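Lecture 7, part 2: worked example. A protein chain together with guanosine-5'-monophosphate.
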Amino acid sequence: MADCIFCKIAAKEIPGKIAYEDDRILAFHDLEPQAPVHVLIIPKKHIASLDQVTEDDRELMGYLMSKVKDIAKELGLDNGYRVVINTGDDGMQTVKHLHVHLLGKRKMTWPPG
Ligand code: 5GP
Ligand code: ZN
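Predicted complex, written out as structure tokens:
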């Protein structure tokens, strides 16, 4: 996707502070962290949102979700963490490339805003 900032980060066309990378996914630190640790985990494949996931993405999405705990461990989130996937307008999704927010190192509140 030519004008997608997260595709550009994945392609190293714009810089990102990378926390984890392999051939299918990338985790990088959020520009405006909402917790002491705040990383975004994305599939390298451009998928616009959770609402656009197809049958073909099943394995990739399962893989991504299975890596969350490894990335959390790597970042020292030993006391728990929160995972958020903002989706669509009501979900307040601002970047239209599916991303998993991984937040930690502080006590979260509930319900979310
Ligand atoms: P959303 O609101 O779509 O769920 O989350 C988008 C997130 O991407 C926000 O937390 C925002 O701070 C972050 N973000 C937006 N642009 C950039 C960028 O260029 N680099 C990084 N590292 N984070 C970004
Ligand atoms: Zn993209």
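The mean pLDDT is 97. The pocket of zinc ion (ligand 2) is lined by residues 1, 4, 6-7, 46, 97 (CB under 6 Å). Keep this in mind for problem set question 3.
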